[in-house]
């Protein structure tokens, strides 16, 4: 059932495998308890879900619909399935999670849609690279998938954060060519925390049509969501969600999590803490001779090259992370990573 | 977002629309809190998920794998997708939820699989009706879907409970013909409570290969599960789940719900209470002149015919239920339906 | 490989199994020979294919695009796939070929689309039955397939021919509700021959948007076609055809068949002959005591009830047809059925 | 309708765009005429289709089933759909026709299957490259497509011919890992003509399980076929073919083409002529200063680099071919390319 992490390790001295190993933030748990009174109509007709649309429309400074789903894969694949014709395709980075790590979900839910890979540093591409991909795609050629959408990951799979200007460029190109613009925001809050701007500044104001809004990696229990800004995508999405088994009967408990998550800036506080944890960790690593950071640390993910024996030692000391090559590791800092874990890992790295 | 219940009504005097309007049972909520400590590996490699397999294998007196999913639709459609070839079909009752109420999910996840409807009283069919359907299916005829599976709903959509002998007959036929045997157990506990037998007595001992195990309608928050008894179905299911976006990252919180649900017979107590509520309600209704019960009340669902003016009055008095025709209603009793709600509804029915 | 006809019988005294057991009409074969000179660009860019659009636009008195395909199943399924959303459905008669005899092709090519069955005598439904189906379909209900199209079969599977007024009624309803209107014209010429009207009178003038144009059953070799009258359906169809492997490289040989087929009214002459054969056969049968015609014979298909021993005798005398029940047969008359075959069959039926 | 060749040009002085611009070889056309007598049961139950299995089983020195289809895309996609699970993948060259030029047909017919690209010179890969791909594929990882098959193109898209030893290596690896082994033989005869061996020497004796057998590019009208050597693939294929609308009713005319095609070595004579044409053309080109052959010419395809002005001149003189870049062209020689066309093209290339 578990592909990457064959051995469970609950007595870890520090778990940097992903931000999804974390606990539910206590105030989100409290919101679940508070929502557990009285009856509520199912499938999103409850009071909490109704509030959700209003709350997110205010946050994003544009009318939107919010559809909670169980996982980030569901959010991405169903959002894109609403955008793609069966012979359509979505431009994305060649290292995008939707292309490499979701078991073909976009293709399956779109009944044949293709991932059209673009290159670019740090898991990012820009409008120029997108334009080149578009020109090479073969518009009208029935032998080829036809571009319907473009998807960016914010924070990227390499831990980088797109600047608003880059997003604006992509958004302008998408609008010009009639492409839907999707953002995979599995770590959307971490990007906002980094950029110090409001959610609208990197989405609705720049042409994003549909957003995979991640909360699970940043303190929720099981509440990612699809946020739809473009009205024409709502109707197909409703049907795709039902068919996908993503329309929770007790939807109030998904909505309650998301409401608590954005209440009083909780999400941004948690993300800022996770980012700060990563900054501290990366600075500590960079100061160690023989250690090299492989990417600029914009958010809560650190890629580093270390001597294999050093990595072996970190593992022996019961630290957990994802080893991508004998000398390469990925460390993800969650909001509730204890100081001792980070200090301990640095100590182990130092020898 | 809500198909059947256009108006939310939180100040209902009694909500009989479905058992999914209920709260989470407090001890299940407590289990969520208890699971919220430390880190756990994601995607089902956590300690709770590991316990789940062992716990359910004991319950069902046979080795099994348990895969939590977000909804009953996901459980049914993915369980059956693991059973069906793309040109395969599943026998089910013509009124089955998988055929009428899940937006084509079985067909979508199986990439073309068909629902092969059978008739029968009370939402049930028996081995003879199944055999007739099989004989008429056109085995080997490429113009027709090829039978791969049979699915029964226990409790049925009409509120009836299959007797073990009926299940045994279907199981024997399925084994003889090489059909996978699926049970939609959205209200599995209610059936057990009615029959007074153990879970193995109506599943593993009678040839059931794969079970949609419902907990959400009976006190859980968002935890249905696919329970796989036939090992060959595990591998395809793992891939289908990931692709469907049903592999929760924080799976421990799904597992914790399910563990609490079956702990100390909680599930059976809750189901017994729901069934008793329905029995009381139906007896009260049956005693009212002009009211007719349309189905035997085996579990927690009541179908009744009443004069339209009576139904109008019940609605005016702020009771909620599903009106299927001017003179026909469905009432579902949940475990936590208050006595006053039931008494109030009866009073409204009396005039 | 053969589902219905387990035993080949080339020395048949009369073959009434289907009109597709016939030869290619000689002038169509001659057209293939004539097209076999010089080089031609592939995939429909040849001169013959170009002529086809113009020729059919004149025939149907409206601009259209013609896409030859290998089979009637391909024509129907791809035409409808261009009309349906993945959660869409097409109204059709419950006995329609697309629903019962094409191996789920519509559902497969539309990635989940549903067949929404309607009842009606003679394989026909009318606007009122369509309206009732539409009202019951659950528009907006995500649990149900959403109506996108309606399909009629002309000639129907029961050998009946829709009157123009009936088609007009369906077309008007389709337009009102925004449904695409598809006609399965596997035996389109036989319907025209019966009605004595031009092709536009039962298609373009009555709202038909897309037509499966059959020629194979009426003298061609392997040339059915999708004729598209509604421009918005052309683009998706082009992509679906390529993906389906229905875009012939040497398309000129498909186009040449279709051009010869409609040249100088050949198609109507062949169809009139097939219809006349069936009329003669059915009149002969009706005159035999104990024989009952089960449907009005509008075109070239005869359904009859005979004593089982009579049918046994016909089989013993080496006549071939499709026996649907011990006392029920279907006889299809092709354009080139010899007089002796028909007379011989009648003689065998008489005893 | 035509993607690559926007302008038809029937008065070409020489058409080197593809071998599918050719005529039907006269003896194949004669076979169509000869088959046009009497009635035949439909859908492959005819006498010609029956002969086909026996004839090909003899040719390939192993029992096989032959399923004619309309196009090479249909042959490839349906053959592979029979091999792939919905979450499966097929290894192929990164430049394979199935990956780049068939509109996503493999993915569509397999309901989600992936193309797993391998690199290699001349459109070929070897067992070592395949093994590396297999090792990197992530067996058991639900985030990734699972290898089910490997596909080679013989002749490759770059005009190269796999040596039997290379095929043997791939076949051995496939057998070891349980992968189905598919060969795209769109130009299978050209490969045989080059290698001078029998069909079994590069297929059945080396582990090929299923073959796309091309005849259309080498003299047939519309008759490619799937040849199945592995019995377990027959059953799914039958259903997939029907559903795909590839089960011709008048199948005898497909079978008759294929029987004539392999009669008395016709196919090998035609292929040898096409190869010889390409050899002559390529030798002529290579002798021209400033012209460079980009691939070894193993069969009937020539890739060449020429000065752009030279290419412009060839186009002005009304020669037709596919220009892949300003200075790069692909020339395909068909069996019936006239000497004057080849000489004329060389003359134009010389200036």
Summarize the structure.
By secondary structure, the first copy, chain A, is an alpha/beta fold. Chain A has 13 helices and 13 strands. Chain A has two domains: 12-23 and 266-350, Aspartate Aminotransferase, domain 1; 26-263, Type I PLP-dependent aspartate aminotransferase-like (Major domain) (Aspartate Aminotransferase, domain 2, 3-Layer(aba) Sandwich), CATH 3.40.640.
Please give a structural write-up:
The structure is a homotetramer of 351-residue chains. Chain A is α/β, with parallel strands linked by helices and 351 residues long. Chain A has 2 domains: 12-23 and 266-350, Aspartate Aminotransferase, domain 1, CATH 3.90.1150.10; 26-263, Aspartate Aminotransferase, domain 2 (3-Layer(aba) Sandwich). Helix content of chain A is 39%, strand content 17%. Chain A has 13 helices and 13 strands. Chain A has helices at residues 26-34, 47-59, 72-83, 97-100, 105-109, 127-135, 164-177, 188-195, 234-243, 252-262, 266-286, 308-316, 339-350, and strands at residues 14-15, 65-69, 88-93, 114-118, 146-153, 180-185, 210-213, 224-228, 292-293, 301-305, 319-320, 322-325, 328-332. In chain A, the strands form 3 sheets. A 7-stranded mixed β-sheet of chain A has the order 2-8-7-6-5-3-4, with helices on both faces. Chain A has a 4-stranded antiparallel β-sheet with strand order 9-10-13-12, with helices on one face. In chain A, strand 12 and strand 13 (328-332) form a beta hairpin. In chain A, helix 1 (26-34) packs across helix 10, helix 3 packs across helix 9 (234-243) and helix 11 (266-286) packs parallel to helix 13. The model of chain A is unreliable at 1-9 (pLDDT under 50). At the B-C interface, loops of B face loops of C.
């Amino acid at each position: 059932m578990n592909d990457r992490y064959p051995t469970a390790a609950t007595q870890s001295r520090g778990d940097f495998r992903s931000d999804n190993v974390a606990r539910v933030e206590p105030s989100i748990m409290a919101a679940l308890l508070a929502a557990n009174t009285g009856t509520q109509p199912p499938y999103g007709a409850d009071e909490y879900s109704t509030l959700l649309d209003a709350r997110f429309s205010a946050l994003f400074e544009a009318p939107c619909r919010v559809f909670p789903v169980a996982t980030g894969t569901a959010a991405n694949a169903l959002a894109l399935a609403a955008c793609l014709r069966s012979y359509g395709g979505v431009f994305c980075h060649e290292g995008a999670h939707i292309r490499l790590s979701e078991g073909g979900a976009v293709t399956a839910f779109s009944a044949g849609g293709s991932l059209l890979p673009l290159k670019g540093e740090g898991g990012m591409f820009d409008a120029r690279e997108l334009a080149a991909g578009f020109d090479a795609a073969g518009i009208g050629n029935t032998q080829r998938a036809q571009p319907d959408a473009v998807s960016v990951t914010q924070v990227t799979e390499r831990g980088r954060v797109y600047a608003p200007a880059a997003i604006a460029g992509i958004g302008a190109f998408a609008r010009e060519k009639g492409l839907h613009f999707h953002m995979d925001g599995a770590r959307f809050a971490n990007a906002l925390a980094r950029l110090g701007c409001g959610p609208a500044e990197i989405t609705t104001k720049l042409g994003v049509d549909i957003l995979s809004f991640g909360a699970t990696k940043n303190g929720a229990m099981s509440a990612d969501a699809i946020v739809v800004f473009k009205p024409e995508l709502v109707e197909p999405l409703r049907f795709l969600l039902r068919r996908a088994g993503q329309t929770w009967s007790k939807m109030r408990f998904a909505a309650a999590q998301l409401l608590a998550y954005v209440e009083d800036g909780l999400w941004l506080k948690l993300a800022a803490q996770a980012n700060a944890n990563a900054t501290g960790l990366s600075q500590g690593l960079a100061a160690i001779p023989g250690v090299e950071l492989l990417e600029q640390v914009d958010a809560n993910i650190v890629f580093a090259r270390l001597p294999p024996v050093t990595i072996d030692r970190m593992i022996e000391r019961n630290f957990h992370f994802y080893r991508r090559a004998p000398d390469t590791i990925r460390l993800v800092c969650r909001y509730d990573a204890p100081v001792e874990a980070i200090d301990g890992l640095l100590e182990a790295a130092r020898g």
